[in-house]
Amino acid sequence: EFERSDPLMTGTSELSVSQEEVVGLGKGIQDRTQGFRRYLPLAVGSCVGLLVLATPLVFLLLPAVMWPDRLQACGAACEGLFLSISFKLLILLVAIWALFLRPGRASLPRVCVYRAFLTTLTLLLTMSYWLFYGVRILDAQDEDYHGIVQFAVSLVDSQLFVHYLAVVLLELRQLQPCYSVCVIRSTDGETRHYNIGQLSIQRAALSILEYYYRDFPLHNPALLSASKHRAAKHLAGLKVYNVDGAQPGNGNQSRAMVTAAAKRKDSAHNELYYEEADYERRVRKRRARLVVAVEEAFTHVRRMKKEDERAAPSDIMDVREAALAIFPSMARALQKYLRTTRRQHCHSMESIQKHLAFCLVNNMSPKAFLEAYLAPGPTLQYGPERWMADQWTLVSEASVTNGVKEGSEFLLRCLDFSLAVTVKSIPYIRLTEEYIDPKSHKFILLLQSETSV
Question: Which residues does UniProt assign to the signal peptide (predicted)?
Answer without folding.
Answer: none
